[in-house]
Amino acid sequence: MNEIRKPTTGDVTLGALPASEKFFVGGERLGAHKVPMRRIFVHESAKEKPLVVYDTTGAYTDPAAHIDIEAGLPRLRGEWIIARGDTEEYPARPVQLQDNGGATGEKLVPEFPSLHRPRRAIGGK
User: What pTM was computed for the model?
Assistant: First the structure.
């Protein structure tokens, strides 16, 4: 039987992406939260401005971020969501085989050690 290999933070690809830079934009409604954007530079022969897109890479491309896959990502909007008063926690169901794409054997990894209780909308909100 294969032993389950526990991934480490060193297994995660970190750092900047080539030919681009990550930056953040603020807004009135978000308070201290900022929206991640990415400026993608095209080849100088194109004579075009960089393309700006919404950045979905998360903390993994932020050189200032502390990454610990055992702890998970910080819950940046948690307090804001709770303060709205329109959600509630509910018990999560156990992890099932299909949640991991049916992985078995050497592809199987242990369940994530830091579990958060899920939230759902309250009464039609």
Answer: 0.56
Q: How many CA atoms lie within 13 A of 96 on its CB side?
A: 3
- Which residue type is seen at 30? L
- Burial class, 41, CB count within 10 angstroms (exposed 0-12 / middle 13-18 / buried 19+): middle
Residue 48 DSSP SS3 = coil
Which residues, in sequence order, are CB contacts of 27 under 8 Å at separation 6+?
34, 35
In a 10 Å sphere around its CB, with 0-12 CB exposed, 13-18 middle and 19+ buried, how is residue 62 labelled? middle
Q: Which ranges constitute the DSSP H helices of 44-85?
A: 78-84
Beta bridge partners of 51: 40
What does the pLDDT look like over 50-87, one tens digit per residue? 999 999 888 888 878 888 877 888 888 899 899 999 99
